Amino acid sequence: MDVVLEKLSIIIDTFSNLLKFTGITIELTLVGTTIGIVLGLLLAVARLSKHRVFRSISWFYIWVFRGTPLLMQLFFIYYALPMFSEYLMFPPIAAGIVALGLNSAAYLAEIIRAAILSIDKGQMEASKAIGMSYAQSMRRIIIPQSYRRLIPPVGNEVIMLLKDSALVSAISLTELLRRSNQILNNTGNPSIYLYTAAIYLFLTSILTFVFQKLEAKYSVYE
Q1: Residue 119, SS3?
Q2: Can you name the CATH fold of 2-221?
């Protein structure tokens, strides 16, 4: 019995230790996702714009951030930007949030653009016929109809962002994975990764559940 209680105590202590740093992983994911969605929506609308300059800027941004590794972008923001100006020197958590947000925006922009293009063109023509501007049509008619089609791929992107947040350990930010590595170095026990994997699985399961509920909610409008 004493052995069982001792092992149980070790498990509880280990989870408690890891959970202290899980909040950083969650913060990186939530804030990075928020930046990604807002910027991604602007990029998607710009790519669909009739103005060539807006389309070109959006295309270039997406081309760069989808075509280069997230880890390299993280290194560039944290290590290289301060070489241009001291005002571009970010603390590790800010650099992580910026890198995740900017990278996510490129992928979300294409997801949003595809969802918008999937809406029948007659919807835009009808909105213009009743006197709506392009911006009003997008905001009131087209984008709301694309919600249902956006939810599954956006959910996948958020889950990917949660897992990619582990890359910030490369710039010495102590989040869930880096804390696991520190515990491994201190104890020499690789089973720590089982606890870490359990936490990641728990977080991704919650996200999956939330997006499934959202998908079911908005499916009634199709």
Answers
A1: coil
A2: MetI-like fold (1.10.3720)
- In the chain, the largest separation of any two C-alpha atoms, in whole Å, equals 78
Cβ–Cβ under 8 Å, residues 153 and 183? no
Cα angle vertex 34, ends 33, 36, to 5°?
60
Sole residue written with tokens 């595809």: 114
Which of 136, 1, 108 minimizes the C-alpha distance to 47?
108
CB 67 within 8 A of CB 110: no
Rounded Cα distance, 16 and 62, in Å: 40
Helix H, strand E, coil C: the string for 11-76 is: HHHHHHHHHHHHHHHHHHHHHHHHHHHHHHHHHHHHHCCCCHHHHHHHHHHHHHHHHCCHHHHHHH
CA 58 to chain CA mean position, Å: 19
State which of 3-12, 29-38, 191-200 shows the largest mean pLDDT: 29-38
Q: Which two tokens stand for residue 166?
A: 């582990």
Per residue in 15-51, pLDDT (tens digit) is 888 888 899 999 999 999 999 999 999 999 899 888 8
Q: Find tokens 């001291």 and name the residue.
A: 86
